[in-house]
Each structure stands twice: as structure tokens, then as C-alpha cells.
Amino acid sequence: MPAPARSRRRERPATGARPAARAVWTALGVLVIAVWIFPVYWMATTAFKSTPAMEADPPQLWPHTPSLIHFRKVVDDPLFWDAVRNSALVTGITVPVAVLVAFASALAIARFRFRGRGTYLAAVMLVQMVPHVALVVPIFLTLSDVGLSDSVPGLVVTYLAFILPFAVWTLRGFVASVPKDLEEAAMTDGCTRMGAFRRIILPLTLPGLIATSVYAMILAWNEYLFAYFILASPDKYTVPLWLTHFVTSEGTDYGALMAGSVIVSTPVVIFFMIVQRHLAAGLTAGAVKG
Amino acid sequence: MTSLAPSRRSATTAEPPAPARRRADRTPYVLIAPSLVVLLGVLAYPLVKVVILSTQKWGVAQIFSASSAPTFVGLDNYTKLLGDSAFWTVLLRTVVLTVAMVGLSMGLGLGIALLMRQVPAWCRRGMTFALVMAWSVPTFISTEVFHWITEYNSGVANWALGIQPHNWYTDATQGLAVATAVVVWGAVPLIAITLYAGLMQIPSELVEAARMDGAGPWGVFRHITLPVLRSLLAMLTTLSVIWDFQVFNQIWILRNGAPSSDYYTLGIYAYVKAYAGHDYGLASATAVLTVVALLGVMVVYLRQIAKIGELS
């Protein structure tokens, strides 16, 4: 079953769909769209309102006089660019390393029978279930012991550990769904094992690799809890941490916060839209296809 | 699930070619070594450390002075914890919240996945777009957006409900309801899209055949849809329980990093004990108990994993 889930999409059987029922379903569908899009819409429109417009009563459902004042406040802060650089660094290192390491493990699990394979698989999954909050204190202490607390490498190593279980699991599904016969045929035709890997497995698991990269990217780019615990100096802050400085005990600067959020979310949303099909297919490949 | 992937099974049981098999002795270990190092170093070692910490007195004195080593106190931290009525209140609150969050996320997720099969293509594309959009918004941002929507004076929710000004956070029940909404809003996209992808794997001949045999919509759902989705549902429910039981970010951010005690969940309780109370021993004991409480759920999930492990 190498085909991804969506290629098996079939026309819904025409029987039994009465027009009235169909109208109700469509109305519900539109409601779902509204509920899930509204917070995102509200974030984006708030970012473009001046402060008096934000507090207008009744609320402006769209910015009547669009303003860039909040965006200016964000991009004029030198610490914002520090944070963007730190986040880009953390994400840029974490993603390729995580995908490479996870892919190697996925190959081992899907293509080799070896002693300890089942134990390894169970351990990987067990580790994923340990509450992150439970590990905050010991991870912080462990990183301090080796001098990695309050540092970018410390954060990268931590994120690697949290990405790996999911990434190994997803990639395993993709590798396992490439028929071995294909590789064997390539080797019969004169490919080396490495050549078969490069020409057969790599292209066929590419969607999985992309999906895993995006998952890793979102986690590394968005993570808040561990960054909050591990980083102490403001010049090492990642973007999520930097954004929280708009929240103070005197009140929250929602305009700047929303503008910052728009800037931060945009790259993630774009990447995600591009690859979401692969991600859903990958999740199902891992879970359903065995 | 094997009926859906007959070709795969026969493919994986085929013998690997001889040269690969000879080399296979070492190769898989080399391949898993890097991930093993990271997982052992960052997750397993700290996990062991949590257990050790939980049996020690580990406070301010131990952090700031090298001479006062942590002392072994056996199960003192646990007895202290279990004897504290606040702990039981927190545990009960965490369980109730988890049930509400998981129930709502799974119910809505499954409902939306089924709905996506019933609506016209334009509507389905719109739903996918909205869900994916919501999925990609970072938790801390979505939480702040909900915070803003429920803001005392200018929150659009208060205006829409005609109750402005209204403080959602003086009453913890209302505040936690907002937290639940944030969690569910963020969790449903993954669940709905994954389940929808699972639904696409149901052969329509199967549904047709069942209809011919006189099955109504409910019969089709019960006898075809549910069995096919069972492993996905088990996996998603278990993961949701694990994620929601540890809920921290949403409540933490909604309460501006200073939740009052009627907002405490186990995660927040452990954090407050560790960082504000400087009692790492007690915090670690809380963490260990959290893991133990989750073990029951994990067993179900691990059995699922083991089943898939056997197949491939």
C-alpha cells in the first residue's frame, strides 16, 4: 500500500443525500469554518487597528482605518530581531538534525530485524508519554550540570528529544510502505544497496521527510515551556519568549502582541499550508498501515 | 487493519537479500545509535533523576551551597504530598479538566471528520483551510488571542454576549472554561484531519455493500466506520489524555504567569512547588505521581504500538 491516503479518495455515493440534509451539513460546515477561523481573523485584524480602534465600543469587526503602529513597535525593537535570529538558529539546527537522526532510526526499524527492536520501539513511545512538565526541573538541572542551561545548544538538544519519538514513528510508516520488492528489483538491475536507497526509498519517502520537517519546525519555532525554563538572558530569548514581554503585571499590550504574533505565525502558516496533505497522510500511514 | 493492506504484509515478510542480511548484524544498531543517545540523555536520564530527586530533600540550601548535599528522605515527599488536601483537590481538578478537554476534542474532531464527508467540495476545502490555519498557530499565541477576545472591557466575546464589562477570570470555573476552549480549539484540527484521512481509506464498496444489506447510516457508522477508525481513535484519545493531563501553557498564559491556587493543575502545582517554593523534592514527587497516574492510559496505547510493531 505505497499510495498515500488521498489518492484513494472516492466519490461519495450519491444515494441517500437529500437536499435538505445536505443544506444542514453545509451550514454546519460553514459554522466550523467560522469558529476555527475567527480567532485567527481577530488576531490579524486587531494587529492592524490603532489602540483607540481596538477599544472601540461596539468593536470594529474589521479595521476601519488600518494602522501599522503596532507593527512598527515590533520591528523597531532590537530585541525582536535578536529573538528572530535565535529562533531561526534553533529551528535551523533542530530540523535537519532531527529529521536525519529520525530517518536513520526509522530505516533500522522498518527494514531490519534485530535484537532489541521491539524494546527500542516501545521505549521510544513510552518516552513520548512522559509529561513534559514533569521533566522541566530535571532537564534544567541536567543541562546545568553540563553547562548547557541558558544556551541555544541546550534548547536544541531538548527539542531534538521531543521531536524524535513522533518523527521516528511517522517516518517508520513511510519507509514501511515502500515495497521491498522495488528495492530488490533495483538491486537485481545492478544498483548497490546505497543506490537502491537513493533511487527508491528516498524519493518515495520524501513526503514523510517533508511532513516530519514541518512538524519539527513548528515545535522548534513555537515551543514556549522549555524555552521559558532553560533561557534566562533576554538576548538569548526565542520569539515566543520575547512576545511575552508585552504581557506585564500592569496589563497587556494586545496591539503589539497581535502584530508580533502575525509576524511570527505567518511563515509557519505558509509552510504548513504547503505540506499539510503530506502530514495528514503521514499520520495515517503510521497509525493505520502498520 | 490488515485487510486494508494485504500487499504490504506479504512484502514485509519477504526475506531480505543475503548480503544485506549479513551486514544487518551491525547496521541497525549504528542507525538507531544517535536517537538512542539523545533520548537517553535528554529524557531517560532526567526521568531517573526525577525519581531520585523525589526521595530527597532538595531545596534552596542544596542549590546555593555545595556543602549541603541533598539528603535522602525516603518516601517523605510522597507522604507529605498525599497527606496534603490541596494535592487531592488539584488532582481532582486535573482529572475533571482532562475528561472535559479530551471528550470535547475527540467528539468534535470525529464529528467534523464525518461532516467533511457530507459537505460539498468547496465547503470541505474551506474546512481544511480553517483547521490547518488554526493548527499552525502556536499555543502561546492562540492563548493570548483568546485572552484578548475575553478581555474585561474590549473583549469581543463580552460584546457578542452583551455582558461587557465582564471579568472571566475572577471565577476559576469560567477561567478554566476559557482554558478548555483554547485547548479544544487547538486540539481539534489534528484530530479531525487525521480521522478524515483515516475515513478516506474506507473502500466505498464496503459502504455500498452494507447499504445493500439494509444498514442505515447508524449501522454503517457502527459496523464499518468505527471498526476501521478504531486504532486511530485509540491512538488519538490516548495522546490527547497525555497532552491534556499535562495542561500548563494555556492556564499559565491566561493567568499572566500567576495563577491563583484555584487554577492549579498537577503541572502548575509541581512548577509552583519547585520554583516558587524551591522544593524540588516535592515537585519531583508530584511529577512521578503524574506519570504513575498516566500509566493506566499508556498501557492501552502501548498495546496498540506492540500490535503495529508485530505487523511490520
TrEMBL record, chain A:
Keywords: Cell membrane, Membrane, Transmembrane, Transmembrane helix, Transport. The keyword Disulfide bond does not apply. PROSITE patterns: ABC_TM1 (PS50928). GO terms for biological process: transmembrane transport. The keyword Cell membrane applies. Its main location: membrane. It comes from the Bacteria. It is found in: Cell membrane. Coiled coil: none annotated. It is a multi-pass membrane protein. InterPro entries: BP-dep_ABC_trans_perm, MetI-like, MetI-like_sf. The chain crosses the membrane at residues 21-44, 88-109, 121-144, 156-179, 200-221, 254-275. Residues 84-275 form the ABC transmembrane type-1 domain. CDD domains: TM_PBP2. GO terms for cellular component: plasma membrane. Belongs to the binding-protein-dependent transport system permease family. This is N,N'-diacetylchitobiose transport system permease protein.
TrEMBL record, chain B:
GO terms for cellular component: plasma membrane. It is a multi-pass membrane protein. Residues 91-301 form the ABC transmembrane type-1 domain. InterPro entries: MetI-like, MetI-like_sf, UgpAE/MalFG_permease. Keywords: Cell membrane, Membrane, Transmembrane, Transmembrane helix, Transport. GO terms for biological process: transmembrane transport. The chain crosses the membrane at residues 29-48, 90-116, 128-149, 176-199, 220-243, 280-302. Pfam families: BPD_transp_1. It comes from the Bacteria. It is found in: Cell membrane. Residues 1-21 are annotated as: Disordered. This is Carbohydrate ABC transporter membrane protein 1, CUT1 family. Belongs to the binding-protein-dependent transport system permease family.
